[in-house]
Amino acid sequence: MDLRRFVTAGVILGLGLGGFFDGIVLHQVLQWHHMLTATSPPTSVGSLELNTLWDGLFHVATYAFTIAGVLLLWRAARASDALPPTRTLVGALLMGWGIFNLVEGIVNYHLLGIHHVLDSLPPGLARLALDLAFLALGAAFVLFGRRLIRESEGSVSARPSRVR
């Protein structure tokens, strides 16, 4: 069994699912930020339309990662006589989600400054602390995910017989 194929698939799927969580929970449900709220606050209909468009493009990208991850996972399972333990997939998903948080936080919050975790906070220590906590959560996901994968190396799950 090539564990790398399962881990790669899980990481890519985790990138998509982490992006969906960010977009659905932080953008839509909590409305803490949109893609461009730091540069184009949604104080007018035109600005809200612009932010909604970029949120939609963001969701298209997360959808593409999710589909790619599912397809890669399906291919890895079809090509293997055994399946890795559940913690391998959970670890890979956490790694992908953590990588999403790290890249999104570094690029959007710190390099581009197009939004922050909670854009309604004024610039300062509280907003910076929340942005850094988001990065720390991402790093923790990556490290914990990697630990789960390492702990599961060498063990496999019996594969149920296939019906063709």
TrEMBL record:
Q: Does the keyword Transmembrane helix apply?
A: yes
Query: Origin organism of this chain?
Result: Rubrobacter marinus
Q: Which residues cross the membrane?
A: 7-30, 57-77, 89-112, 124-144
What is the name listed in the Swiss-Prot or TrEMBL entry for this protein? DUF2243 domain-containing protein
Q: Which UniProt keywords apply?
A: Membrane, Transmembrane, Transmembrane helix
Do you know which Pfam families this protein is assigned to?
DUF2243
